[in-house]
Amino acid sequence: MAKKVTMQKIADHLGVSKFVVSKALSGKGGVNEATRERVIQAASQLGYFTQKNSYLQPVVRAASVSPEDRSRQSVLVLMPNIRSQTQDSVYWGRIIDGIALALDAEGVGMVIISEQRPEHFAHVLNPNGILGLIGVGQISTSMLLEVRRIGVPMVLIDHEDPLIPSDTVFVGNVDAMGRLTNHLIGIGHRSLHFIGNIRYSRSFRDRWIGFRSALEENGIQPQDQNDPMLLMESGEEGIFGESFQQWAKERIESGTMPTALVCANDMIALGVGGVLRELGWSIPGKTAVTGFDNIDDAFRAVPPLTTVHVPKEAMGRAAVDKLLNRIQGPAAPLMKLLISADVVHRDSAGAPGTEEQD
C-alpha cells in the first residue's frame, strides 16, 4: 500500500518547513507567489491532491440534491476578467448563455464572479450556499486549488490545469483543425502557416497540434517552426496589427508569403485579413485565411471567413450536466468531454492562385 503523502513529505522534498507548505496549500497569505507555485507543483507531482480528503476542509454535503434543495442554491460561474475573457465577449458570452439556460431549466440560480485573487475569492465560496462551480476560460492554479481545498464540485470549460484534476469540457480542437487543414490541402495548398500563440491556452495548442498533424499526414514540411508569428499574445488590435504587418511585408517582398494562413481563432483571422487588405494583398486570390470559433463577425467579414463552428452554448449546457452528475456521484472518475465542431466553408479560403478579389 502506498504511503500517504503528507505536508511534511512535501516540505522535505522542497527543503522548506512544514509551516511554509501549510500556508501555501491553505490559500492564505504568508508565502510569496513563486514559493506557493513550487509547493503546489511538488504536491501534485507527489500525488498529494489525488488522496481522498487529504487536504479538503470538513464540509458536510448531501449525497444527493433534491429539486427543492437546488432551488435554494446556486452555481458559481467563475470567469476572471482577463484579456478578452469577459461576459460580453462574442465567444465567452455565448458559453455563459448556455450555462444560464441549462441552470434555469433545472431551477438552479447562477452567480457570476470575476475575482482573480484566491484570498478574496475564498469569502464567496460558502459550500453550504452553492451547489458547485463552473470555471470558464483561463483560471489560475492558486484559484482552483482554493476550490478543491474547500471541496466544492467543479467543472472547467475550455481550460484544464496540469496540477489540479477536475472534469473539463472542450471542443474537439485537434480533430476540427485537422479537418480544416486537410480541406485546404485537398484544394491544392502546400504552403500553409499557423498564426497564434500556442502558449496562450490549451485550445490554441490543440489547434496547432491538429494543424501540424494534418501536414505530417500529407507529407508536407511545416514552414518556419520558430517563426515569431506563432508567439503573438492575442488577436486584438494594436501590437498584433503592427507585428503582423511587418511580418507580412517581409514575406510579400521576399516572395515567401504562404498561400494559406490558418489562424488560431476568428479574432486573429479578422486582424490578419484587415492588414492584408491594407497591403493590397487579395483574399483568397493570393492567400487563403481561415479562423476558428465562428463568432458573429466571421460571417460579416470581407470576404466572409472560413472557420470552425464551436457550439458555444452546447459547451455551457454540457458543463452544467457534468456538474450535476458530479454532485450526484462525487466518486466517479473524472472526465474530459469533447464537443464536436464542424468546418464552415465561406469565401476566404479558395484554391491557391485564384485571383478573386475582395
TrEMBL record:
<keyword id="KW-0805">Transcription regulation</keyword>
<dbReference type="GO" id="GO:0003700">
    <property type="term" value="F:DNA-binding transcription factor activity"/>
</dbReference>
<keyword id="KW-0678">Repressor</keyword>
<dbReference type="GO" id="GO:0000976">
    <property type="term" value="F:transcription cis-regulatory region binding"/>
</dbReference>
<protein>
    <submittedName>
        <fullName>LacI family transcriptional regulator</fullName>
    </submittedName>
</protein>
<dbReference type="InterPro" id="IPR010982">
    <property type="entry name" value="Lambda_DNA-bd_dom_sf"/>
</dbReference>
<dbReference type="Pfam" id="PF00356">
    <property type="entry name" value="LacI"/>
</dbReference>
<dbReference type="InterPro" id="IPR046335">
    <property type="entry name" value="LacI/GalR-like_sensor"/>
</dbReference>
<dbReference type="InterPro" id="IPR028082">
    <property type="entry name" value="Peripla_BP_I"/>
</dbReference>
<keyword id="KW-0804">Transcription</keyword>
<keyword id="KW-0238">DNA-binding</keyword>
<dbReference type="Pfam" id="PF13377">
    <property type="entry name" value="Peripla_BP_3"/>
</dbReference>
<dbReference type="InterPro" id="IPR000843">
    <property type="entry name" value="HTH_LacI"/>
</dbReference>
<feature type="domain" description="HTH lacI-type">
    <location>
        <begin position="5"/>
        <end position="48"/>
    </location>
</feature>
